[in-house]
Q: What sequence folds into this?
């Protein structure tokens, strides 16, 4: 392993530990969660999450184990960071995450609204209009890789091509 690789690994470990130590709530699978017991509308919840340091986002559920974890930690119906877009019933995570997992309740989504929440009782999701729900937030404690910077000096000496003898004409 090169010294640059070691430095990069140490940096990532320090960043991970630093963010984990600043988690204002509960850690689970590399994410920090802040579970709230106050009601708010959807936009107010988005705003509340962004005020944490580091900034958090509304919940993005990526699998059934995370759904169960969230269900066991919320106090009541809690906003999810997913909304319906357009007229074709397409649901999109507004948090910047990518997830294909869903846990809609029976006959859901049924067009009740463009927002979604998770039920405490069974972990099922329901679409609703903007109303008062608990607001919970998350962020990944694993930092995104920093972009590689261009070297400021050559990293090695260029090699000189070996010289070839000049061909001599034959007589």
A:
């Amino acid at each position: 392993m090169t010294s640059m690789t070691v430095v990069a690994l140490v940096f990532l470990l320090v960043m991970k530990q630093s963010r984990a130590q600043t988690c204002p709530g509960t850690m689970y699978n590399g994410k920090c969660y802040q579970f709230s017991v106050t009601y708010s509308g959807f936009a107010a919840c988005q705003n509340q999450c962004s005020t944490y340091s580091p900034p958090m986002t509304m919940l993005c559920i990526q699998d059934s184990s995370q759904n169960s974890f969230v269900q066991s930690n919320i106090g009541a119906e809690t906003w999810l960071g997913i909304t319906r877009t357009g007229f074709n019933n397409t649901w999109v995570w507004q948090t910047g995450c990518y997830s294909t997992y869903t846990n809609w309740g029976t006959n859901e989504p049924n067009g009740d609204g463009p927002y979604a929440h998770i039920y405490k009782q069974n972990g099922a999701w329901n679409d609703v209009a903007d109303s008062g729900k608990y607001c919970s937030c998350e962020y990944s404690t694993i930092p995104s890789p920093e972009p590689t910077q261009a070297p400021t000096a050559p990293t090695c000496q260029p090699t000189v091509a070996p010289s070839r003898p000049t061909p001599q004409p034959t007589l």
